[in-house]
Amino acid sequence: LFNNVPLAPVDPILGVSNAYKQCTAAKKVDISVGAYRDENGKPYVLKCVFEAEKRLLGAPKEYLPIDGIPEFNKVSAKLLYGDAMNGKEKNMVTVQTLSGTGAVRIGIIFVRKYLPAGTTVYISNPSWANHHNICKESGVPSAQYTYYDPKTRGLNFEGMIADMKAAPNGSVFVLHLCAHNPTGVDPTKEQWNVIADVMKSKNHIPFVDCAYQGYASGDLDNDAYSARLFLSRGFEMFSAQSYSKNFGLYGERAGALTIVSHNEKNIPLILSQVKMDIRAMYSSPPTHGARIVATVLQDPELTKLWIDELKGMSNRIKYVRQKLLDALVARNVPGTWNHIVDQIGMFTYTGLNPKQVEVLVQKYNIYLLASGRVSLAGLNDHNIDYVADAIKDAVTS
Ligand code: PMP
């Protein structure tokens, strides 16, 4: 019966992380997976989360409503859209989802069911690989738009705009709110304004993927610029929020999908359909992570503690960016490395090629993606020199 099941390809990110776990070498470094580590390389539970968990001890384990905890949905929309909401609440619906991935998935299914047949979802080149998987598995046509320029290791803004202009009117564009994964390259505010102009003239629909709010600049409002711009410019749009990175809630699967419609009469109808999809897929979302987020964001003291901790995490990443750059420059590693500090968020797209990456993995047990993406959270004072030595060897040998 099952003789025809082919082996699925290994996930490019999780596969590398598993290889690291299986590696028995005494000296090994994991800079593959996008999960925060403290200065000793250890996973970190935020103090505000710990405090919220103390308050939640013994909370009922009853099923949540299909669309999740109402207070969680409210604070999530507010966190992302802030003052840009400005009376638009009635034109928006937010549902709790299985983290950012679940939000993207439910949103893309909605695109397939309720946007005109054949609507294409445009994904940046490169992007988080799961965007493509989700479109494929949801039966939604997807295409790539120009984003990263390997020559400048920055944004190919002209190419991006040209692709937006060339796409059929009314296409969906998946845009990373900030701290673009995997490149760490974001448009400037001026460039976002131009993007919004072009998207408006083409009736394109923003699908803003928000996995790193607070990580890019350490400032939640600043990081939310693009989503707020689209909302205040009157777009009908989608946003997918994840609390994995900014709250450190990875495995708790806390996230939210928001859909914005011009016509408030559509909101209950949209909600009814989204709920039907959720019901058929997993019935209702998990309780714990969303309760933690709602507890923190409804309490000014805990919110302040969270913002301080978020700044702490974002500053540590900035610190290791600078340290890695300094270490490479001190070793006279051929090439330019300034992009390491110019890029933002959790990752740097180093520009190392697959052969060089292979040297790091095979010879030094330093695990990173074949694309050369490094998760900076895995670096610290104990391993940066080792990694810099290995990069020098990989680049010069
Ligand atoms: N979108 C992007 C761009 C991401 O980087 C991630 C996490 N790696 C997600 C969505 C989803 O994250 P999660 O489902 O773990 O919250």
UniProtKB/TrEMBL annotation:
Q: Which UniProt keywords apply?
A: Aminotransferase, Pyridoxal phosphate, Transferase
The UniProt entry, under InterPro entries, shows: Aminotransferase_I/II_large (IPR004839), Asp_trans (IPR000796), NHTrfase_class1_PyrdxlP-BS (IPR004838), PyrdxlP-dep_Trfase (IPR015424), PyrdxlP-dep_Trfase_major (IPR015421), PyrdxlP-dep_Trfase_small (IPR015422)
Instruction: Describe its partners and assembly state.
Output: Homodimer.
Q: Name one GO biological process term.
A: amino acid metabolic process
For this chain, the family text in UniProt reads: Belongs to the class-I pyridoxal-phosphate-dependent aminotransferase family.
Hey, what's the signal peptide range on this chain? none
| UniProt domain Aminotransferase class I/classII large: residue ranges | 27-391
Q: Output this protein's name.
A: Aspartate aminotransferase
What is catalyzed by this enzyme?
L-aspartate + 2-oxoglutarate = oxaloacetate + L-glutamate
Q: Give additional notes from the record.
A: In eukaryotes there are cytoplasmic, mitochondrial and chloroplastic isozymes.
Looking up PROSITE patterns in the UniProt record yields:
AA_TRANSFER_CLASS_1 (PS00105)
Q: What class of enzyme is it?
A: transferase
**What does this protein need as cofactor?**
pyridoxal 5'-phosphate
The EC number on file is: 2.6.1.1
Q: Which GO terms describe its molecular function?
A: L-aspartate:2-oxoglutarate aminotransferase activity; pyridoxal phosphate binding
